TrEMBL record:
PROSITE patterns: GNAT (PS51186). This is GNAT family N-acetyltransferase. Gene3D superfamilies: 3.40.630.30. It comes from the Bacteria. Residues 15-172 form the N-acetyltransferase domain. Pfam families: Acetyltransf_3. InterPro entries: Acyl_CoA_acyltransferase, GNAT_dom, Ribosomal_N-acetyltransferase.
């Protein structure tokens, strides 16, 4: 029998993390066409409404049902506006470990939402699901994502050399692929005891998001 995460929502003081639905498609389309997200993820570019609909209504639910992980739409509690996404993937049910990836909408950066949402998922993962390891991989030049990892208490474990393909702007306004190292971070249940409440004012826009390939 395939192990799966429950179909749930997670709430914090400012956010609600829930499954995607059809109402998220326009905001998801706009968010994923942001230049920084294009640069640091392998999401299709341009990211069309059809891409957003496929991800929100088919791919994301299938991730959970197949036991590969779970995808959350991160929304503001008061406005219900889409803040970003948090995704658990590459889940190993034998070792109780999984990898987290996150994306934050341009308008929501600098508010500490990435830290708040990832910490909420980590607490749920460790306390309710009894997982033992959460892993995060960030491109070497993605300093904002690295700041999120540090703020939530992750420990840097090393570098995977030349392991990622990022994207860079060309002189004619297009995009070209560039090789990048990946920094591997981890968070264990005992690490959460040392993490204080997430601070506002941080940045957080994108982590490596391999599943978009």
């Amino acid at each position: 029998m395939t192990s799966t995460f429950p179909d749930i929502s997670i709430s914090t003081d400012r956010l609600v993390l829930r499954p995607f639905d059809a109402t998220d498609v326009p905001a998801l389309t706009e968010m994923m066409n942001d230049e920084l997200i294009t640069a640091w993820t392998s999401a299709p570019h341009p990211f069309t409404t059809a891409d957003a609909r496929e991800w929100a209504l088919r791919t994301a639910p299938a991730e959970r049902l197949a036991g590969r992980g779970i995808v959350f739409a991160v929304t503001e509690f008061l406005t219900h506006r889409l803040v970003g996404t948090v995704r658990l993937h590459h889940t190993d049910w034998r070792t109780l470990s999984t990898e987290v990836a996150y994306v934050t909408a341009p308008w929501a950066r600098g508010e500490g939402y990435a830290c708040e949402s990832v910490l909420a998922v980590a607490r749920w993962l460790f306390r309710d699901q009894k997982f033992e390891r959460l892993e995060l991989r960030t491109a070497a030049d993605n300093t904002a994502s690295q700041q999120v990892a540090q703020k939530i208490g992750c420990i840097s474990e090393g570098v995977l050399r030349n392991a990622w393909i990022a994207r860079s702007r060309t002189e004619d306004g297009g995009w070209t692929d560039i090789r990048s190292d990946l920094i591997v971070w981890s968070l264990l249940p005992e690490d959460l005891d040392e993490v204080r409440a997430p601070q506002t004012g941080g940045t957080g826009y994108a982590a490596a998001f391999p599943g978009w390939r």
